[in-house]
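Table S7 (text form). Paired inputs.
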Amino acid sequence: MNESLRIGVIGCGDIAATRHIPALSACSDVRLAALCDADLQRARHLAEQYQVPIATADYRELLQNESLDAVVICTPPWVTPHLTMESLQAGKHVLCEKPMAVDVNTAEKVRETERATGYKVQVGFTYRHGPLLETLREWIKQGKLGSPLVYRLGIFDESWDPTGNPEHYDRIYRTMQHGSPSIHDGAHVADFLQFLAESPVTAVESFGIRTRTEFPTTNYDLSVIRFENGDIAKVEIGWFLPKFPKGEFEIVGPKGIAIFDRFDQYVQLKTGEITETVKLEEDWAASCFSIQLGKFIASIRTNTPCVPGVDEGIGSLALTKAIEKSLRER
């Protein structure tokens, strides 16, 4: 299959408009053929901006289009698995945003549907792609940090500003009604840990607080995660605070420390003997979205499994659900 793949997008919110659609539009191997959003005006505006021939508010209209090879699904995670399954049944490959579901049972139904239809699912753990995470993993595999390792990760996002940005406040509040930030941003963290530690989780202990009583769930979670190989992770995830710390991504071992600075776009290894730095000159996020799309296209064309696929999506979800369970038990 050498001709361009025809791809549609379901859900034209912020992540689609700022990341997925620009990546699709810039890719010479893709024809961006259709956009769908419940807000038809939003879909039409983006269709006009990117010269997309079809804009609709009915996703079924998009799925019934036999000329489409695949869809990118950018909807809330309580909606995503059902659209993913319908898309597979309609004969479309799927790149879906993370998390792929909000419970493991539903995610497993997606896996069953993928197997039954023969079409592929790639889960949008976008930020695992590219040389920075791959360099970190290679340093770990080469034993440059020694073992056991301590992973220190912090993600702080979604500023609390109900007056200045009420649309954002309402959207994130609705998201929190379906689970704490550990289910949502925690999906990326869980995937990072799967990708780097490559060891089963043996124990999870989590603590959470609501900084305002009206929040539907905790908005700051702290988790300690133990792995079978002896590694340990400390994970902080916070939403809906007016100001945030920078967050951290560090891996500490008996031989040294590795640092991933997502803002200045570099990874650095420091041991007693050396300091080694790999810096990304292009925009990290845009690069990750471009590489992710390239891997999705390659999987379709070569009929090989998507990575990360449904198994990785279920693994990440299982870890975030373990965090959620520990939070409930406090």
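Next pair, protein 2 of 2.
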Amino acid sequence: MKKLILIASIIALGTTTAKAQESFQFGVKGGVNFANIAGDDSNDPDSRTAFYAGLVAEFPIAENFSIQPEVIYSAQGATIATIDQDNIFDIDDNTEYQLDYIQVPLLAKIYLVDGLSLQAGPSFNFLVNEEIDYEPTNNGGDINIVDGANDFEFGTAAGLEYKFDNGLFIQGRYTRGFTKIYDDVKAYNYAIQAGVGFVF
């Protein structure tokens, strides 16, 4: 009897693994970020319009539930007002405080109806670039900042996605940092994302 149970368990596990491998999906995604900085010390800046792009995978756990890890390059920050009283720089109307991250969200994905899913979960974000760009519409104007913002940010991501039968999907998402951008400053990243992707 024990041998039969063991054999049945192995067969069931093998079948489940095979189904999971058949339904596993991997793809790419990208879109636009409407990013900003919130908090008591943020001084209410305007949003920065930028981009995000990355890789996505989906591991089905049950019929309507999956785990979706991602690796995304996300350009964030805000648009700030700069007054150049000494005419040191040729400043555009829009001066950007640029905070760019590699984000690693780990999301629970629940299918509400066929193709339409709700996603939410933690995000582990690693700062890769921090600079002031007083000419964001041109190649110049970049002032790199060293030892400024914190290198790591813990946050969350949540949103909706609709995936078509051919693998194309459209997506809207809200991301928010829970940890401060600077240790002693009450300011936090957030962004609204809209984009498209394709899974194979």
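Residues 4-21, 83-91 have pLDDT under 50 and may be disordered.
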